[in-house]
Specification:
Elements lengths: L1 H20 L3 H9 L1 E6 L8 E2 L5 E2 L1 H13 L2 E6 L5 H6 L5 E2 L7 H4 L2 E3 L4 E3 L1 E5 L19 E5 L3 H9 L4 E5 L2 H9 L5 E5 H10 L5 E3 L6 E3 L2 E3 L3 H16 L2 H10 L5 H4 L1
Parallel strand pairs: 1-4, 1-5, 9-10, 9-11
Antiparallel strand pairs: 2-3, 6-14, 7-13, 8-11, 8-12
């Protein structure tokens, strides 16, 4: 009996040790490597951008750096093309996507999302010649209009779903797409409201911003499916930075101040 009891205790101790050592595959890999590898597509103002000196800056970048610092690991940026960002995550080249990604059902079939960390929506940058003639997305739902946006984004989805009669031109980057309007080759550019607001302020006279979003789009951090420990970590981290004031300080820096524009222009 004593031997059986001793064996049972030893087995329980082994099980306890094994459960306390593991914190989920993503957190374990972060701890083991000493790195938090974060995927994004630089060029989405003010979330992630490449500065004049070659470093990455932006709202998402600052949030990621705080996350890594609180984890006690190195922040490693992984800049990748938007249309390949989910495959990059799923092949293990980064631990999470922190890239202003809208949470939607189609993406959620491939990745898990943490709770939304910000909510935005699609707005319209309009050719100045259409000011007063086009006052909402409904007015653009006509075959005589050409609308530009970035490939693989919720802007493209919104156009196909809500403005299907218009001609759609998609581009690899938002910078190329919005130039179509500024250069008079497209009637409108549809994209996330924060980017459009900044672009409009920088290009007064070249575009008109219909700034009220016509879609509801929560943005969230994405990870590979099936790791509830990492989701728990991300949700708790978000509550922490919103509670201690860190989130508000970073938000104000990038959304309520334009001093950073000199770093990317």
């Amino acid at each position: 009996m004593r031997k059986l009891f001793s064996g049972f205790v030893a087995a329980m101790a082994l099980m306890t040790a094994s459960t306390t050592v593991s914190a989920g595959p993503i957190l374990d890999d972060i701890a083991k490597s000493g790195e938090l590898r974060v995927c994004f597509d630089a060029g989405y103002m003010p979330f992630e951008m490449k500065s004049k000196n070659g470093s990455y800056i932006g709202f998402d970048i600052d949030i990621g750096k705080i996350m890594a610092r609180q984890m006690g690991v190195k922040y490693v940026p992984v800049n990748t093309a938007w249309d390949g960002i989910i495959p990059t995550l799923l092949t293990g080249k980064c631990h999470l996507i922190n890239a202003g990604m809208t949470i939607n059902a189609k993406r959620n079939m491939r990745v898990n999302f943490a709770d939304p960390y910000i909510v935005v929506g699609q707005s319209i940058l309009l050719n100045p010649e259409l000011e007063g003639k086009v006052t909402s997305y409904r007015d653009l739902n006509d075959k005589k209009y050409t609308i530009a946006t970035k490939l693989g984004t919720t802007g493209e989805q919104a156009i196909k779903r809500m403005i299907s009669k218009a001609k759609l031109n998609v581009f690899e980057t938002q910078a190329d797409a919005v130039l179509e309007v500024a250069n008079g080759k497209a009637d409108a550019f549809i994209y996330d409201m924060p980017f459009n607001a900044i672009y409009a302020s920088q290009n007064a006279g070249k575009v008109v911003h219909l700034e009220k979003p016509f879609t509801f789009e929560p943005l969230g951090w994405a990870i590979a499916q099936g790791d509830m420990d990492m989701l728990n970590f991300l949700n708790n981290f978000l509550r922490q930075i919103k509670g201690d004031g860190s989130y508000d300080r970073i938000y104000d820096k990038w959304f309520k101040n334009d001093k950073w524009l000199s770093q990317v222009q």
